[in-house]
Amino acid sequence: MVTITDIASPEDSSVDPFRAGCEPRVLLHTVGDKWVTLVVNMLGDGDARFSELQRSVGGVSRKMLAQTLRTLERDGLVVRTVYTNTPPRVVYSLTPLGRTLLVPLRAVRAWCEQYVDAVSDAQAEFDGRGDVQPAVSGSMPTPAR
Amino acid sequence: MVTITDIASPEDSSVDPFRAGCEPRVLLHTVGDKWVTLVVNMLGDGDARFSELQRSVGGVSRKMLAQTLRTLERDGLVVRTVYTNTPPRVVYSLTPLGRTLLVPLRAVRAWCEQYVDAVSDAQAEFDGRGDVQPAVSGSMPTPAR
DNA sequence: CCGTATCCGCGAGGATACTG
DNA sequence: CAGTATCCTCGCGGATACGG
């Protein structure tokens, strides 16, 4: 199986938006993933079992949750502890590395919570009127940036 | 046209991973989007024209870039300034709100750059061996968390 | 140069059923 | 309980062509 973390650079490695040879862009994609952000945030509040995560995250299928957790485990962000009694118990928890990720991820989360209203307002205004833009009449032929 | 920012809560609003009534999850999804993060980061380094963005981001189609910029504009994170001369010029820049987003987004970016090697190593180790997990033999029937 | 419109392939991801 | 396997759909996103 091949996951998103395996894909290589677009094709042109000379122009790189994220100044790097080994593609943090790819990592960014993983980290920015919908379920990844939610799961890591949940685990940040304490270890949890599979079914606990499924309930607390809300709206995630078993398939996607398992897939997400596998990726996180593979990336060294989450550890999976199995208790082999019946009924079986599996507990997921963040690794030290995973906990470092929690910091910036919570910053993003905080931003969302803080500005969700502002964004909502902006959307309403944008959608409200056809938004007749003034359109600056051109001067400046084509300056050097 | 309906974008991702329009979709509502999963269905069960009682259990909410992101403690909110007005769904910052949805915003999170937008903010975590692949192209959004890249574009905002680029604009953080200075205003840019459409074609400049397309080149600097790398690997993005005109369609996706336009779509991304439209979303960002609608969300009040980016402003679009049109100069109506020939050849036409369109300059995109972050709004003050957009600049606030830049802070947490750059934190995530910094994390990716800092730990890309650690993650890469974890992946290698994970993939290397079939990873025969010890599996903790069960005690503790089912404690209260 | 800066987009939008149209077509379309492909893979993400839900539903369901089955194992340990 | 904690997944895996299989099917199937649906919309993301690339390619292409056209308009302002």
TrEMBL record, chains A, B:
Signal sequence bounds: none
Residues in HTH hxlR-type domain copies: 22-120
Protein name: Winged helix-turn-helix transcriptional regulator
InterPro entries noted in UniProt: ArsR-like_HTH, HTH_HxlR, WH-like_DNA-bd_sf, WH_DNA-bd_sf
Organism (species): Streptacidiphilus alkalitolerans
PANTHER family linked: TRANSCRIPTIONAL REGULATOR, MARR FAMILY, TRANSCRIPTIONAL REGULATORY PROTEIN
Keyword Transcription regulation: yes
PROSITE patterns reported for this sequence: HTH_HXLR
Keywords: DNA-binding, Transcription, Transcription regulation
